[in-house]
Specification:
By secondary structure, this protein is of the alpha+beta class. Helices cover 22% and strands 36% of the residues. A hairpin with a 7-residue loop joins β6 and β7. This is Gamma-glutamylcyclotransferase.
């Protein structure tokens, strides 16, 4: 029986070299860089992405990585992001997006629907921001 695969855009602590990468690392089948429309807010040790009116009006984008994982990998990321399912109470929602520069590239991304009082991150790549923040 063939396992189903899922494509997910990662942009924060799931990226290689960051605190939660081990959650998905063992399940990654392939990875390529990407850019999607959205904006980041600073939640401290990790960011959250918003795909709200402010992000679309400003044309904001977020750089990250498209990864392909099996069902088990997607389940592990859902658990980390506290995503229970569509129309459930979730910390992060999982929504379908398309890459801004590679229209053939699409998949899931974890997002918040509001900034929840967190300050905006003015740049498009969280690892650079986080490295400067940590000094």
């Amino acid at each position: 029986m063939q396992q189903r695969l899922a494509t997910v855009f990662i942009y924060g602590s799931l990226l290689p070299g960051h605190s939660n990468h081990q959650v998905c690392a063992g399940f990654i089948q392939s990875a390529v860089p990407g850019v999607i429309q959205g904006r980041l807010v600073d939640y401290g040790p990790y960011p959250a992405m918003l795909r709200d009116a402010a992000a679309f009006t400003s044309g904001a984008s977020v750089r990250g990585m498209w990864i392909v994982v099996n069902e088990q990998g997607l389940k592990r990321m859902d658990e980390l992001e506290q995503f229970a399912g569509i129309e459930e109470e979730n910390d992060y929602d999982r929504v379908w997006v398309t890459d801004m520069h590679q229209p053939e590239q699409s998949g899931w991304v974890y997002v918040w629907d509001t900034p929840r009082g967190c300050p905006p991150i003015a740049e498009d790549y969280w690892p650079d921001f986080y490295a400067r923040k940590r000094g």
